[in-house]
Amino acid sequence: MNTTLADIKDNFKELGIKSTLPRVVIYQALMKFTHHPSAEEIHIGIQKKYPGVSLATVYKTLDLLVQNNLASKVVTDEDKVRYDPRTDQHIHLYCKKTNKIVDHEDAGLEKLIADYLNLKGIPGFDIHQIQVNIKGELKTIIKK
Amino acid sequence: MNTTLADIKDNFKELGIKSTLPRVVIYQALMKFTHHPSAEEIHIGIQKKYPGVSLATVYKTLDLLVQNNLASKVVTDEDKVRYDPRTDQHIHLYCKKTNKIVDHEDAGLEKLIADYLNLKGIPGFDIHQIQVNIKGELKTIIKK
DNA sequence: TTCGTATTTAAGAATTATTATTATTTAGAG
DNA sequence: CTCTAAATAATAATAATTCTTAAATACGAA
Fold it and tell me: Could you tell me the distance in Å between the CA of residue A90 and the C1' of nucleotide C22?
């Protein structure tokens, strides 16, 4: 994974994005979350390491990452936009209890849907992307 | 379809919702759209027929409809919340060109996904709802 | 390495969608 | 028809996000 500072700088350079400390820190923070954080969560997350960075810069940088295909936006019925450091197609699980969004790998299901739609298509519609969001609850593991 | 004024009033009465003109007008307007409108679109849409209704009432009424399972919220990566007068499961098409959201019927695909997930499930996750959003573009029909 | 310049940033003001407040109006029970 | 709880219009308040601007910075060229 390209998560070291040097890797990220290279990553940015390749895309012609000026490599600044706020950008590197924000991108790194986004990748470290196990769920998909909001701009505010990222802003709070980087306070210790880099207290000076403003929320506006967090928003601008996240937008830049999305524009350059280094991240994608994720939305919920309620509240704010979340950010996902992946841009390839994958399934999202929305937990109604914790209100968090996490990735879910199921190549079988993805292939099933893709194959079906490749065959059948949608009349009058050009498919670019298929999103599958599964809503529910993370089961509580009861310890003995 | 229960779209006449009397039908809607009955609908409301059954649910113990007080039947007021703004509510009936807003619900009727929501059902008339071919895409899924925002609160603002509905507000603008009812101006002619009922100019006095305030935007706050539109929001409150839409929320009431959602609470009572007469409508559901639909979100996009950008901008505002849209409302859908259906609450059963169905696929949404997001057009990137027109920025509109419309319903798509494909019982075959829905069954395929439901059967697959019924069989396989998701370890540690309780599935409540499956959302399939297909993003792309409505093809332009070129007239000869 | 130092310089010059275009870009980026911090800070906070502005904007926009949505929600809350409140005085007034209204639906519908009795 | 009256009464009362609930709904509405008007508008203020809030919260997420974007914009503005002066100061700071990255980085190519010398």
Answer: 48
Which residue is closest to C19 in terms of CA–C1' distance?
Answer: B56
pLDDT per position as a tens digit, B65-117: 999 999 999 998 877 899 999 999 999 999 999 899 999 999 999 999 999 99
Nucleotide nearest to B81 (CA to C1'): C17
Domain ranges across chain A: 5-84, 91-136
CATH of domain A91-136: 3.30.1490
Of B93, B96, B126, the CB nearest to A136: B126
- Other C-beta atoms within 10 Å of B144: how many? 2
Choose which CATH entry (1.10.10.10, 1.20.58.100, 3.40.1190.10, 1.25.40.10) describes domain B5-84: 1.10.10.10
* Nearest nt by C1' to A54 Cα: C10
Note whether A112 and B113 are within 8 A (CB): yes
Q: Which nucleotides of D are covered by protein (CB under 7 A)?
A: 6-12, 15-20, 25-27
Q: Provide the 8-state DSSP code for B141.
A: P
The rounded distance, in Å, linking the Cα atoms of B115 and A108 is 13
Question: Strand A91-95 vs strand B72-74: parallel, antiparallel, or unpaired?
Answer: unpaired
- pLDDT band at B1; cut points 50, 70, 90: low
pLDDT band at A32 (very low <50, low <70, confident <90, very high): very high
B82: DSSP letter: E
Residue A141 CA to nucleotide D13 C1', Å?
42
